[in-house]
Amino acid sequence: MKLKFTKMQGAGNDFVVIDAIHQQVDLSAAQWQRLADRRFGVGADQILIVERPTVAGADFRYRIFNSDGGEVEQCGNGARAFARFVSDQGLSGERSIRVQTMSGIIAPALEDDGSVTVDMGAPVLEPAAVPFDSQGLDGLPEGRDLLWPLNLQLGERPLTVPVSVVSMGNPHAVQTVPDVDTAPVAELGPQVEHHPRFPKRVNAGFMQVVDRNHVKLRVFERGAGETLACGTGACAAVVAGIRRGLLDSPVRVSARGGELSIAWAGEGAPVYLSGPAVTVFEGEITI
Ligand SMILES: N[C@@H](CCC[C@H](N)C(=O)O)C(=O)O
């Protein structure tokens, strides 16, 4: 099967974006994996699929596959790339669109400076809905948040790491670290991702608070490993930081691949994610 695609990136989180309105796209998990493979395919953290919506009130349906081939509920940096793609390809003439995802409708809007702002909806804070199994665990209250102890291992050394659990449609566990550059992301990330308390696995965020309006963040993503930026991870980290009383909205999030900005007015309010969305190249692949 021949597929036309566009390679895109948002703060270094990279995507293969495919128009499935004008082409037939029905790939297996192994084919998604091959497309995302950096040696045998195009290379991407996520594959994004543009489809016609199946619900009222949406302009498009947005499907997301991690580089491990698994379909997931949400992707924030991808949502900005999605909006840029449908505009550049002439699929929409609107500055603001409504997009159906596995976890509800989100609303990206093109800004005059070329960036994109996405209304990502309200975060889900109830642990069971993240989903996180808190049975038999005592959460440690901090501000309006509860920190949950996760038992992990650093080399030979057992350690207990307190995490905030937040869903932005997809699950996140956020821990604060003194310095993101020396944080043991490669060692702890996979342990958090596969921790038995997260039945759907989890994205593992490592946040360094610089000041009340600025954090540095690294995210070990579920199904993709550490990426250069994670949009939903940035939303989850800022929500956790505000609830813990460490941050005030808006917050600048410095990721290794670029800068994001997050605004959140508090409980029940939507989270706004702003940042870049850039086309790298277009191509065709036989898959
Ligand atoms: N890079 C993304 C998140 C992609 C999905 C995530 N790995 C998951 O499995 O939930 C973002 O920018 O939000």
TrEMBL record:
Alphabetic keyword roster: Amino-acid biosynthesis, Cytoplasm, Isomerase, Lysine biosynthesis
Cell compartment(s), UniProt: Cytoplasm
Pathway: Amino-acid biosynthesis; L-lysine biosynthesis via DAP pathway; DL-2,6-diaminopimelate from LL-2,6-diaminopimelate: step 1/1
GO annotation, cellular component aspect: cytosol
Catalytic activity, EC: 5.1.1.7
Keyword Amino-acid biosynthesis in annotation: yes
Catalytic activity: (2S,6S)-2,6-diaminopimelate = meso-2,6-diaminopimelate
GO molecular function (one): diaminopimelate epimerase activity
Function noted in UniProt: Catalyzes the stereoinversion of LL-2,6-diaminopimelate (L,L-DAP) to meso-diaminopimelate (meso-DAP), a precursor of L-lysine and an essential component of the bacterial peptidoglycan.
Assembly with partners or alone: Homodimer.
Full protein name: Diaminopimelate epimerase
Species whose genome carries this gene: Massilia litorea
